[in-house]
């Protein structure tokens, strides 16, 4: 006990008292609220987000659909020999443009020239026999009046005359065939256009008939077709319901773009639609015609065909940048009269000059956010500003407003 008390010397006791007092003061300072301290200021309200909106309004547009197609020559001819013989001349260069009637090949004409001369002689002989038969028949007709000859003799002379006349007709037919064969010895172009290469050259013997060899081919250059297939829905909605008959269908404008040359757009018109829809594919065959004045389009070329609807239609258009994607859904943000943002799912159609046709989900007069979409959420309050007019005019035609079939 004495030892414990000896620890509390007067100096140590004073130090303990000072430390206890300082701790009490500190505890009072940090725990007691200050009379002069004020409450923290309330957080400032966030200002409305500035966005750009576009008010939906129906516009007159001509919708265009896009299809894949192949170029086909308007006229195409395979040149094959129609007589037998050896090729003596080739009178064109590979790829040369020719006119109908130009001689392309010469098959040895000498046998056919000889046949023509022979048949001409045969015809002269037959014609002479007719003259003699007519004289004999006239004499017999006079003699029968005096009963100098029997009726049977007159009948014989009449028959001889008819046989002679038939021989003349036969000789004329043979001469005509000989002249045709001689004409076929000079192989001519049946149509105007551009030739292929000469498949058989000078010195080779060719034969006509079944299995006759191909000499060359010609494709016309006066225009060209684009063959493609239109799906049943597009055909019924944009063509058949408005275009009544082939004459009106041929007024529908068509555009064409070749692969690797997207800057060059060829303009044409519909030539025809087929008379039935293929039940296996649900499409109808279509054919458009293009002038091909520069000759750049060649048969067999793969192209993209843009087909216009038969008439303008009223549609709501929304810019691509206003459209959001929620998995497989498409949506836009709509601003109401109180400048509140709401989520709106939409169904979209074709593309027209960077904008999408709205099939359902929006109505005329509604305001859609087109700029600032990424900064807003449903129920936000925004400060909307109307976007400058970017819809374009339907008077610009197919070059300016082209609607394409949506692709997945």
Give structural notes.
- The chain has three domains: 51-61 and 313-403, conserved putative lor/sdh protein from methanococcus maripaludis s2 fold; 65-74 and 223-308, Beta Barrel (Elongation Factor Tu (Ef-tu), domain 3); 77-218, RNA polymerase II/Efflux pump adaptor protein, barrel-sandwich hybrid domain (OB fold (Dihydrolipoamide Acetyltransferase, E2P)), CATH 2.40.50.
- With 408 residues, it is α+β, with helices and mostly antiparallel strands.
- α3 runs antiparallel to α4.
- Strands 1, 18, 19, 20, 23 and 24 form a six-stranded mixed β-sheet that branches. Strands 3-12-15-14-13-16 form a six-stranded antiparallel beta barrel. A five-stranded antiparallel β-sheet has the order 2-17-22-21-25, with no helix packed on it.
- The protein contains six helices and 25 strands.
- The chain has helices spanning 2-5, 10-31, 110-145, 151-184, 232-240, 246-249; strands spanning 49-55, 59-61, 64-73, 76-79, 85-90, 97-98, 103-107, 186-188, 193-195, 205-206, 216-219, 224-231, 253-258, 261-273, 283-290, 302-308, 313-319, 324-326, 329-335, 341-345, 347-352, 355-360, 367-371, 382-386, 403-404.
């Amino acid at each position: 006990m004495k030892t414990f008390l000896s620890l509390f010397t007067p100096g140590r006791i004073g130090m303990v008292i000072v430390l206890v007092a300082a701790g009490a003061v500190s505890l009072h300072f940090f725990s007691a609220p200050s009379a002069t301290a004020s409450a923290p200021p309330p957080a400032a309200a966030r200002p409305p987000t500035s966005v750009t909106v576009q008010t939906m309004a129906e516009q007159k547009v001509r919708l265009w659909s896009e299809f894949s197609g192949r170029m086909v020559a308007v006229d195409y001819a395979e040149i094959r020999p129609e007589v037998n013989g050896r090729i003596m001349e080739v009178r064109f260069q590979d790829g040369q443009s020719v006119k109908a009637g130009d001689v392309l090949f010469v098959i040895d004409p000498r046998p056919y020239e000889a046949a023509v001369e022979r048949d001409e002689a045969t015809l002269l002989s037959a014609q002479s026999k007719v003259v003699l038969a007519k004289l004999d028949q006239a004499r017999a007709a006079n003699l029968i009046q005096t009963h100098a000859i029997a009726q049977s003799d007159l009948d014989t002379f009449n028959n001889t005359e008819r046989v002679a006349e038939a021989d003349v007709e036969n000789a004329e037919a043979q001469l005509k065939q000989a002249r045709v064969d001689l004409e076929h010895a000079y192989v001519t172009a049946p149509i105007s256009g551009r030739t292929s290469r000469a498949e058989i050259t000078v010195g080779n013997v060719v034969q006509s008939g079944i299995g006759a060899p191909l000499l060359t081919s010609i494709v016309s250059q006066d225009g060209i077709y684009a063959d493609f297939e239109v799906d049943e829905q597009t055909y019924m909605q944009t063509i058949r319901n408005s275009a009544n008959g082939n004459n009106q269908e041929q007024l529908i404008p068509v555009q064409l773009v070749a692969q690797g040359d997207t800057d060059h757009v060829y303009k044409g018109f519909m030539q025809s639609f087929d008379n039935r829809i293929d039940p296996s594919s649900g499409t109808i065959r279509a054919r458009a015609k293009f002038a091909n004045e520069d000759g750049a389009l060649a048969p067999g070329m793969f192209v993209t065909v843009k087909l216009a609807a038969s008439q303008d239609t009223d549609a709501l258009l929304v810019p691509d940048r206003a459209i959001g994607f929620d998995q497989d859904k498409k949506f836009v943000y709509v601003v109401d009269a109180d400048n509140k943002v709401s989520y709106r799912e939409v169904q979209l159609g074709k593309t027209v000059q960077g904008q999408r046709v709205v099939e359902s989900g929006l109505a005329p007069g509604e305001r859609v956010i087109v700029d600032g979409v990424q900064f807003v959420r449903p129920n936000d309050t925004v400060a909307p500003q109307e976007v400058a007019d970017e819809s374009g005019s339907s008077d610009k035609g197919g070059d300016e407003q082209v609607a394409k079939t949506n692709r997945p």
